[in-house]
Amino acid sequence: MVAGDVTGMALVKALSVADGGLGVVSTARPDGTVHSSVVTAGLMPHPVTGVETVAFVVFGSARKLGFFRKSGRASLVFRAGFQWAGVEGQVDIIGPDDPLTDFPDDGIAELLRRVFRAAGGTHDDWDEYDRVMAAERRAAIFVHPERIVGSAP
Q1: Average pLDDT over the chain, rounded to whole?
Q2: Collapsing DSSP states into helix, strand and coil, what is residue 98?
Q3: What does the domain layout of the chain look like in residue ranges?
Q4: φ and ψ at 145, to 5 degrees?
Q5: Tens-digit pLDDT profile for residues 79-96
Q6: Predicted model pTM
Q7: Cα 81 to Cα 52: distance, rounded to the nearest angstrom
Q8: E strands of the chain, at which residues?
Q9: Partners of 45 in the beta sheet?
């Protein structure tokens, strides 16, 4: 549980670390139905704008990546016990198949590391991590917090 008077992005951050970064992300399929899955996410500044976002990494072949590309939006919920916080907003995708204006293509490997660490991840062999991320064409997703909802402590 999160103690004290915590609201907005502070509540999102507190709950994101309370369960090891696990959250449920949802987006729209082309037919309008909802696609949801579990991801490991964390808060970090957007690599171009510096605005605080919720970030996570997805497989290049993940269905949700195609849905993010089409809808351009996501909602992500973190929870601990009966407390929860959801962030909804537009997404930016940065990866080998999704270049972003003003972000250097040669910065993707380091960016994926930063997102992984923001979500609480550690690794003993970063060269191996980079190799796997590149082979799987993984991409970083950044959810801009346009709306935050949740339960107060």
Answers
A1: 93
A2: strand
A3: 8-150
A4: -75, 85
A5: 999 999 999 999 999 999
A6: 0.93
A7: 25
A8: 22-28, 34-45, 52-58, 73-80, 83-94, 139-143, 147-150
A9: 52
